[in-house]
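[agent] plan:
  1. take the single chain provided in the ticket
  2. run structure prediction with default settings
  3. attach structure tokens to the ticket
  4. add a short note for the reviewer (M.T.)
[agent] executing step 1
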Amino acid sequence: MSERLASKRGIREREREEREDRERAESEREELEIALSLSLALFLSLILLLS
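[agent] step 2 finished; step 3 output follows
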């Protein structure tokens, strides 16, 4: 019985870690998208200023 509980606990822990990893990856992806958008905006602004 305790093995089943430990197994279920291990599965839940692994699922929680996987969910946290997915959330962290999504957050990092969103941050990269924002950084890319800002970089593009700055680049285009520079082009406009120099033209």
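[agent] step 4 note for reviewer: Helices lie at 2-50.
[agent] ticket updated
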